[in-house]
Amino acid sequence: MATQSFLEKLLLAPPASFHVLDPAKAKRMNAATMYIPSPADVARAINAIPAGQTRTIVDLRRVLAREGDAECACPGATIKYWKWMARASEEPGGKTSPYAIPWWRVLKDGKPSRHMPGGVERQIALLKREGVKI
Fold first, then answer.
1. How far is residue 33's CA from residue 95's CA, in Å, rounded to a whole number?
2. What is the 3 state secondary structure string of 41-92?
3. pLDDT tens digit string along 110-122?
4. What is the value of pTM for the model shown?
5. For the purposes of burial, counting CB atoms within 10 Å of the CB of 120, is it exposed (0-12), middle (13-18) or buried (19 or more)?
């Protein structure tokens, strides 16, 4: 059985959805409603980051929550799709896919992520190329 490419995973991902959280999860998330974004939602939010600037995952989640008319956006889906899109960009044809995004402009906890293609070093190099001081 062949392994799915990251682009295939993105294309097969479920559509965005809005959820009213149960009391336990609402308490944990400090929110009553959650938006689970689609890969296209995450791509749009990342593509909106201007060259030479960065955003954190928390910043992206705020944008996505507003767009989804919810109090919060799913951290797992946001991070998963960001990582998948970064990995998809390294696959054959990935640079021309609908999910070719400037993934390096997103920081996890305010720092480059070791989980991105080429690790922290590559993300820093791409940011420096855009004039971002890291």
1. 35
2. HHHHHHHCCCCCCCEEHHHHHHHHHHHCCCCEECHHHHHHHHHHHHHHCCCC
3. 899 999 999 999 9
4. 0.94
5. middle
